[in-house]
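Structure ticket #2291
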Amino acid sequence: MAKARSFDVRTLPGFTAIAILSFVLLYAPILTLVVYSFNGGNSVNQWGGFSLEWYVVAFNNEAVQDATARSLIIALWASVISTTAATMAALGTTRRGRFKGQTVIYIIINQPLMVPEIVTAVALLIFFSTVKVATGYTGLGYLILAHSAFCIPFAYLPIRARLEGMDTAMETAAADLYATPWQTFRYITLPLLMPGVIAGAMLAFIISLET
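Resolution: structure written out below.
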């Protein structure tokens, strides 16, 4: 009996051409935007020579400076909060056996990934508007918490993947040597988990800036 060959999408006719065309359509507009940002002319239809004029104008614009500073502050805090929450969630869902309600927890954590962004945005707007009316508080806290809630699943995925790929032998050995749970986490689990934590934090930071 002949052995069935495994399917490889790269063997499909025209796969390479379609892949190249897809990359061109995705990145050509971005590249065009970058190139024309150095256009010294006042029209996007005519090249007026290489110039940094528009970057100087943007950097000297107080509104742009304020928006950039606020975006960086929000993204930094959102990445810290979401990564911390995602790390705790990943530890709680991977460093123990199957338990009742685990699937529901996965769904709740990953919910922002499964629904359109506008739905999550409207829900967060309604929630924090209600909180603002009840408390009277105004400030960046609402935006930071909203971005954190949206970024948690993005930070959770690489952290959970790292935990699932880690061998528990060293953690077990630390427990056998009378290390406390905190000592085991600090000296064994966290250093091994750090690549996933850094990846999750960087992804959360980028997602927050993009949001």
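Closing remark: The chain has two domains: 10-58, 62-210.
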